[in-house]
């Protein structure tokens, strides 16, 4: 059985909710990633910040990235899937939520993320097309 762990990219980077967006952008640049799960002061996942969020919701809105925090921008808890879950369950969760990233957790701790790029590389063309059709279809 293929699991969520088999699909994910490991070496997950998280960012504290109190960290500024300019620092988040630097981490994304330095690690070649486009999203960072956000941890609240109690260590719980409290959202996710993407490179697009920083540009559209902060910079384009005239906000100062050195003053706005990741917690200010993160919206709700990120979607998660257990590392040992069947890969099809992870893809289904992503499809139903119409999301391009899902955080993989093990014993409640984030251990990786499955991105749209991971799916494109690891799913059959038919399975990926089905996922993409559901995520990008007009609601």
Round the Cα radius of gyration to an integer and report it: 15 Å
Mean pLDDT: 94
Q: Outline the biggest β-sheet.
A: 3 strands, mixed
Architecture (CATH level 2) name: Roll
- State the distance separating the first and last CA atoms: 32 Å
Structural class by secondary-structure content: alpha/beta
Uncertain parts: none
* Assigned CATH class: Alpha Beta
Question: What is the global morphology?
Answer: globular
Strand residues, percent: 15-25%
Q: How do the SSEs run, as a string of H and E?
A: HEHEEHHEHEEHH
CATH topology: CBS-domain
Tally of individual helices = 7
The portion of residues assigned to helices is 40-55%
Strand order of the largest sheet: 1-2-3
Q: Could you explain how this protein is built, in words?
A:
- The chain is of the alpha/beta class.
- It has a single domain, classed as CBS-domain (Roll), CATH 3.10.580.
- The protein has seven helices and six strands, in the order H-E-H-E-E-H-H-E-H-E-E-H-H.
- The protein has helices at residues 4-7, 21-31, 51-59, 70-73, 87-97, 116-122, 125-136; strands spanning 15-16, 35-39, 45-50, 80-82, 101-106, 109-115.
- It has a three-stranded mixed sheet.
- Strand 5 (101-106) and strand 6 form a beta hairpin.
- The longest helix has 12 residues, at 125-136.
- It is globular and about 45 Å long.
- 28% of the residues are buried.
Summarize the structure.
The chain is an alpha/beta fold and 139 residues long. It has seven helices and six strands, in the order H-E-H-E-E-H-H-E-H-E-E-H-H. The chain has helices spanning 4-7, 21-31, 51-59, 70-73, 87-97, 116-122, 125-136; strands at residues 15-16, 35-39, 45-50, 80-82, 101-106, 109-115.
